[in-house]
Design brief:
Blueprint lengths: L6 E3 L2 E5 H5 L5 H10 L2 E7 L7 H17 L2 E6 L9 H19 L3 H5 L7 H16 L3 H5 L9
Parallel strand pairs: 2-3, 3-4
Antiparallel strand pairs: 1-2
Helix pairs in contact: 2-3, 3-6, 4-6
Length: about 150
């Protein structure tokens, strides 16, 4: 992995939420981390919501890639894992975004409801899936699976 990282020792990366999710990292960066490190320890992890859309989306992409490769993810967080993504704030902000978009496009509520694009359900689903994967990544079965470095088939 070529980008600057905080500290690494062999297959273990120690970094911060800010370094991983608030910088301009994309899926190729997270894929390289997932190939290189079997364990990633992230400190200073805040509670996430749609208030921070881009970092939240980066985190979900990163976590999906880590999950697929069996990377062991350890978070030092401000809140319990059950509240790491605030779904209530996410739901409300998604609804607010829909209202703004409806206003911009001059759509009625009925017209917007008829368009799946405006439901926000996909975004909410990805957040719920991320929480589910975080719970699974804490289980012994997951920790006993080997790291899948290299190319996935």
């Amino acid at each position: 992995y070529q980008r600057r990282v905080r500290v690494s020792h062999g297959p273990v990366l120690l970094t911060s939420y800010r370094e991983l999710c608030e910088h301009h990292h994309g899926s190729s960066d997270f894929r390289a981390i997932a190939k290189t490190f079997s364990h990633v320890l992230v400190r200073d992890f805040p509670q996430l919501s749609m208030k921070q859309k881009t970092p939240l989306r980066r985190f979900i992409i990163m976590m999906d890639l880590f999950y697929d490769r069996g990377v062991k993810l350890v978070l030092s967080a401000e809140v319990p894992i059950t509240r790491i993504i605030d779904l209530e704030v996410t739901s409300q902000l998604a609804a607010d975004d829909v209202r703004l978009l409806m206003d911009d496009l001059k759509l009625t509520l009925e017209e917007a409801k008829a368009m799946a694009l405006f439901t926000g359900e996909d975004e909410l689903f990805s957040h719920k899936r991320a929480l589910s994967r975080l719970f699974e990544m804490q289980c012994n079965d997951y920790w006993e699976t080997p790291h899948k470095a290299g190319v996935l088939k």
